[in-house]
UniProtKB/TrEMBL annotation:
SUPFAM superfamilies: DEATH domain (SSF47986). Coiled coil: none annotated. Its main location: endoplasmic reticulum. It comes from the Eukaryota. It is a single-pass membrane protein. It holds the Pfam family CARD. It is found in: Endoplasmic reticulum membrane; Mitochondrion membrane. This is Caspase recruitment domain-containing protein 19. Associates with BCL10 by CARD-CARD interaction. InterPro entries: CARD, CARD19, CARD_BinCARD, DEATH-like_dom_sf. The chain crosses the membrane at residues 120-138.
Length: 179
């Protein structure tokens, strides 16, 4: 989006309800008059700083004049506005449009939160379940000769798993060699 289009979009915002006071407008006009390359000539600067005309009229005329001059002049106006009225510059409607993300773009922070919203207890429960199933499958495999070791591990693990679950697993391990 060109600076002229942005300025056209922001024109109503800048000229409405005295957002810019006379001092700020004078500073902007002086900066546009004194900056290199010179955006406003001395006659134009005097015209836009004339205290006999209302501030709204002078500001509207200045913005229209800059739009006629081209994109470079509008860009310099935005630079002067940023220097002299930074808060107003940040509140411009065209700035808000530039800051708004593309609606088709995935917000990675929000997506990350949505994937991790279950917390550490859910993770530990899933991990414990997977580890238990892996241990159970490993112990039940007929090719492995680790029944004795598994019985020792399960015998020393009353803290990790409950007593009833441990007794069932021990009975199952004792029945496997008989089959």
């Amino acid at each position: 989006q060109s600076y002229c289009h942005r300025l056209q979009h922001d024109m109503y915002f800048l000229t409405s309800t005295s957002r810019l006071n006379e001092q700020v407008v004078d500073k902007i006009v002086l900066q546009l008059n004194r900056v290199y390359p010179q955006i406003l000539t001395n006659e134009e600067a005097e015209k836009f700083r004339n205290p006999k005309a209302s501030l709204h009229t002078r500001l509207s005329d200045l913005l229209k004049h800059l739009q006629k001059k081209g994109d470079r002049h509008c860009q310099e106006f935005y630079r002067a506005l940023q220097i002299n009225a930074e808060q107003l510059f940040n509140d411009l409607p065209s700035r808000k449009i530039l800051k708004t993300p593309d609606p088709t773009e995935i917000d990675t922070d929000k997506e990350q939160y949505m994937l991790n919203d279950r917390g550490p207890v859910f993770f530990l429960a899933c991990f414990s379940m997977a580890a238990g199933l892996a241990l159970f499958w490993y112990c039940c495999n007929s090719e492995t000769q680790v029944i004795g070791r598994a019985r020792r591990i399960l015998g020393f693990s009353p803290i990790i798993i409950g007593r009833h679950v441990r007794n069932i697993c021990m009975l199952y391990l004792e029945d496997i060699p008989r089959n």
